[in-house]
Design brief:
The strands form 2 sheets. Strands 8-17-16-15-14-13-12-9-10-11 form a 10-stranded mixed β-sheet, sandwiched between helices. A 7-stranded parallel β-sheet has the order 3-2-1-4-5-6-7, covered by helices on one side. Helix 3 runs parallel beside helix 4. The chain is elongated and about 85 Å long. It is an alpha/beta fold. Helix content is 40%, strand content 15%. Helix 3 (56-70) links the parallel strand 1 (48-52) and strand 2 (75-79). It folds into 2 domains: 7-212, YjeF N-terminal domain (Rossmann fold, 3-Layer(aba) Sandwich), CATH 3.40.50.10260; 219-490, Ribokinase (UDP-N-acetylmuramoyl-L-alanine:D-glutamate ligase), CATH 3.40.1190.20.
């Protein structure tokens, strides 16, 4: 139930449903009826203008107009094409509306209109909007009329999230069967307002059958792999994560280590030079602190067979210098063949040696967690949407990529990708990325596959931040993890 579809994938789903015996016009009727029911449930009747295109999105609009009129709403309808120009199912849908159909152009009057239903262009739109349509949209914006978009706001590419100049910003977007990629990526998502998915009777098996590789992040994807201790567990069976601790900005490594503990690790160590030992030992008594003075001692520490994952990067470098040393230590950690989460200063250390770094990585062991600036350091600016950029990066690095942001994308080299938009804006605070790195490493230390560990880490971070609310600092994310775990297993608020 968590697929996110491109425009072409949605067409495939429609085709499968039609081939299975549901006529195309029946799907249009179901979409229009479901949308009208949602609108009527959300808003008291007001004078509404439904604007329709000549395609299937317009057909949905015709049915919506007819359904609202039947409920007693004052409805006007305007269409880009003359009724005589409409064909096939769109022509059938137009007949559902018994009122006058006006011409959709820049001269269309908006007097007394209190609501716009935008059914001009749907998931098939690409390119630019006609200037005359933009002029009409400008009039709608000037009057500050609320807009309900059908599938996507007209002017938006449903697959890439590209937004044409003049695109109408919606208050509410009603989509069908599944969310589309544009609903999940910013800035397109911000143009959609509240997004509601309407059921039109297409079976989950039909959607699954097309093999979409993009999913919404949800516990149902990884819950069965989430580690749970039992009565036979002891601290080492619950995983031993190690965090590289630098001598500067020691709080970053500390946050990662504390988060790994809350993720369920039985043991968490900080590996640091002698100059930093005392500071780390004062953080929390249950954290182990192991010191090393040279690379040989570091190799000996990381080769401990009880270690089961690493975090490398948070607070690893001073403000200047140290990159070469960190690169050498990184190769030592990779040589352990244990899961490693690479974050923060790793991207600075390998900025000019990214190709050599990537040759050392493997998809079943390594996770990179860059924010936008770090992503550009390592990968430049690949073509396509953030989703496609993350996929390209995962293939290039041969590792799991967690491309952070309000629309975090978790991508694997095989093309599988998960998008998470559940994180609140309060996560834009110092140290939240370090916490995420620690959560992911904590789950990986307990045996979760890197991709699932990344999905779980992103989700737990987001839910913990939401649970705390305003005034969030990174430490608060860690403190709320136990409650999120408790709520998860109680099935609260997560639709399990």
């Amino acid at each position: 139930m968590f697929e996110i579809l491109t425009a072409s994938e949605m067409k495939q789903v429609d085709r499968v449903a039609i081939e299975a015996g549901t006529p195309g016009f029946e799907l249009i009727k179901r979409a229009g009826q479901a949308a009208a029911a949602q609108i009527a449930e959300s808003i008291d009747p007001v004078p509404v203008l439904v604007i329709c295109g000549r395609g299937h999105n317009g057909a949905d609009g015709f049915v919506i107009a007819a359904e609202l009129a039947a409920r007693g709403w004052p409805v006007r309808l305007a269409c880009l094409a003359k009724v005589t120009e409409l064909k096939n199912d769109v022509a059938l849908a137009a007949r559902c509306f018994e009122g006058k159909i006006e011409a959709l152009n820049s001269n269309l009057g908006l007097k007394d209109t209190q609501l716009i239903i935008d059914a001009v262009f749907g998931t098939g739109f690409q390119g630019a909007l006609d200037p005359e349509l933009v002029t009409l949209f400008d009039k709608i914006r000037t009057k500050k009329l609320p807009v309900i978009a059908i599938d996507v706001p007209s002017g938006m590419d449903a697959t890439s999230g590209d937004i044409a100049e003049g695109t109408l910003q919606a208050t509410l977007t009603l989509t069908f069967c599944r969310r589309k990629v544009a609903h999940m990526l910013y800035p397109a998502r911000s143009f959609c307002g509240r997004i509601v998915k309407c059921d039109i009777g297409i079976g989950d098996d039909m959607v699954a059958g097309i093999g979409s590789q993009t999913l919404e992040n949800h516990p149902a994807l990884w819950l069965t792999t989430l580690p749970v201790p039992d009565n036979s567990s002891h601290k080492y069976t619950r995983g031993h994560a190690a965090v590289f601790g630098g001598t500067h900005r020691t709080g970053a490594a500390a946050l990662a280590a504390l988060a790994a503990q809350r993720a369920g690790c039985g043991v968490v160590s900080i590996l640091c030079p002698p100059a930093a030992v005392l500071g780390y030992r004062l953080i929390q008594p249950s954290l182990l602190v192991d010191e090393w003075s040279d690379e040989d001692e570091f190799k000996a520490l990381v080769s401990n067979p009880r270690l089961s994952s690493f975090v490398l990067g948070p607070g690893a470098l001073p403000s200047k210098g140290g990159e070469e040393d960190l690169r050498r230590l990184t190769i030592d950690v990779i040589a352990t063949h244990k899961p490693v989460v690479f974050d923060g200063d790793i991207f600075r250390a390998f900025e000019h040696q990214a190709p050599q770094f990537f040759t050392q990585l493997s998809a079943d062991k390594h996770i990179l967690t860059p924010h936008a600036g770090e992503f550009r350091r390592m990968f430049g600016t690949p073509d396509g949407s953030k989703l496609e950029q993350a996929r390209t990066a995962a293939q290039k690095a041969n590792a799991v990529i967690v491309y952070k942001g309000a629309d975090t994308v978790i991508a694997a080299p095989d093309g599988t990708a998960v998008i998470d938009v559940s994180g609140p804006p309060t996560l834009a605070t110092a140290g939240s990325g370090d916490v995420l790195a620690g959560l992911i490493a904590g789950f990986a230390a307990q045996g979760m596959q890197p991709f699932f560990a990344a999905c779980a880490g992103v989700w737990f971070q987001a839910q913990s931040a939401r649970l705390h609310g305003p005034g969030l600092v990174a430490e608060d994310i860690i403190s709320h993890i136990p409650q999120v775990v408790s709520d998860l297993y109680a099935g609260q608020s997560y639709n399990l």
